[in-house]
């Protein structure tokens, strides 16, 4: 491999890893951008499921490089330089055979995972009892190497790129990547200098709602590698406490919340009204296009006058998010409208519409599209209340979700269900009301109480509070963690680069 991804000057280098395509992951985007602005050279590696062949050409978020790969086994990757050198087919045959065998193994294991049954879910037949027994054998102890082998392929896809970059620190985002970060760091250590590893725990893995076999794999992965990282950060104080207690960490993880930027660099609008972002989500009814001459407006997207009470739910759309409670509460809230910010229609969004029709409130339920992550607060600001009606799960209890901070920066009072971290935060701030999850009557009472005195709740959002709960404040915490791990702090880059992905680096 060539060293074309290595910067020419020797600033401290940070390799960031995330198992998604980056485009809608605001936390990862902001972390990469801020680290580069702070003076680090940053290579952000993402995963693009449909990418075939070699890694993408670099894109840029400010001064940070972004490279996306597909999922490849090591034998596929080994063929690339041979093909570049014009090697004859005979020399490639062993690699092709090994790659084919690896692919067969991968597909066979996926089929096993899909076919066997979690204990207690079968119909009692001999066939289902056998499948349940196989579950107990195959998924024992959360052995992710057998049940989540795509992570080994992802490591193969990324490993050479990380080694070529020669990072001083590997920042592993979310549950999928700490093992890759630690193993690549140890490999580099055997060759010379081991980079530091920072594990960024985005969620409480044991409490995430996902298929049980996948949850067991990621719990096993995190348990194996969390103590091998040089430091851990996470998204809320309660989750930091739980991580320390669960894994007996020597220190409590630092909290770096996924808060919005107070000022988005490069978002100033020129005379033509263009913004820096064309990265709106690809739903059919995205609220406002990036070339609009007006700031994006949720109220305008709903077609509502300024005096119509408007509640908003923004975030992932699924039954566990409790949106059905908002619909169920509408009959008790005359004249109040609800906007659900979502992507493409799904079976669940259609079920919400059907629920609203059955209650006779379908004219007051609006499904609207996404905007780019950094435009969300100004998009939501025309609503009256931000709602977080999520149901009780272990992960929800410890979360301070991104949308909470986006509601704050939109200066919306918040009505939240009684999940522990966000309920406590709301009571402490006095910026909203708490209701019992799934209780539509209590939810409607909380909404009515806030609407009756909305300015008092919104007044809690002082400049100091918003600054403390902004990305700029969180980036200082992240920078402090980097500096502590590396024992040095680089000179920040001069000038200001726009926040947003581009195909060329900005000066």
UniProtKB/TrEMBL annotation:
The keyword Transferase applies. Keywords: Glycosyltransferase, Transferase. One of its GO terms (molecular function) is glycosyltransferase activity. Pfam families: Glyco_trans_1_4, Glyco_transf_4. Residues 268-277 have a biased composition (Acidic residues). Residues 142-258 form the Glycosyltransferase subfamily 4-like N-terminal domain. Residues 263-298 are annotated as: Disordered. This is Glycosyl transferase group 1. The lineage of its organism: Bacteria, Bacillati, Actinomycetota, Actinomycetes, Catenulisporales.
